[in-house]
Amino acid sequence: MSADEQAGHRASDTTIERWDGLCVVGQRDFPGVPQSAGAARRWVLELLDGHTAAETMETLELLVSEVVTNAILHSDSAGPDGLVTVLVGLGGDVIHIEVIDDGSATSVPAIRTADGESLSGRGLSWVNLMASTWGSSQDDEAGGAVWFRLATGHPSGHGPLPSR
């Protein structure tokens, strides 16, 4: 399945361009409820188990949780029938994770400065610190997307591609 054949969200032109040279190894829709952050995290870890270094898996666990949680909290995906779509791609020694939400008329992804006692507001700061690269896009029809890339950390690249 290519990035433009998603069931839950239609890929924008910028999403399709981002996926050039990557192989989509998994795509799944999750309901826009808080429990979906854990479900998405478990799905990504299961999908890439054995194909990625343990340290990279720990980073994936944190970043997938943060990006999916942000999509639910700060987009229209939390509304009735809201969805968050998670795509996983591999290319060379790179893992690409993309989270597409239902968009928002009032919020765009941005790194915030959290005060020392705050329990929230650090998600994109962690993504910025830990990912090789990351970004976001907004499309009136396709929704919002936040994506990040990590090196697989696997000595021989990503190994065999996982089966969907």
Note down, in words, how this protein is organized.
The longest helix is centred in the middle third of the chain and has 20 residues, at 54-73. The chain has 4 helices and 5 strands; from the N terminus they run αβααββαββ. The chain has one domain: 2-Layer Sandwich (Heat Shock Protein 90), CATH 3.30.565.10. It is an alpha+beta fold. A 5-stranded antiparallel beta sheet has the order 1-2-3-5-4, covered by helices on one side. It has helices at residues 13-18, 35-48, 54-73, 123-130; strands at residues 23-31, 83-91, 94-100, 133-139, 143-151.
**Number of structurally distinct domains:** 1
Task: Report the CATH superfamily.
Answer: Histidine kinase-like ATPase, C-terminal domain
CATH topology: Heat Shock Protein 90
* Percent of residues in beta strands: 25-35%
What is the helix fraction of residues, given as a range?
A: 25-40%
Kindly state the mean pLDDT as a whole number? 80
Order of helices and strands: HEHHEEHEE
Main structural class: alpha+beta
List the helices and strands and how they pair.
Layout: H1 13-18, E1 23-31, H2 35-48, H3 54-73, E2 83-91, E3 94-100, H4 123-130, E4 133-139, E5 143-151
Antiparallel strand pairs: 1-2, 2-3, 3-5, 4-5
Helix pairs in contact: 2-3, 3-4
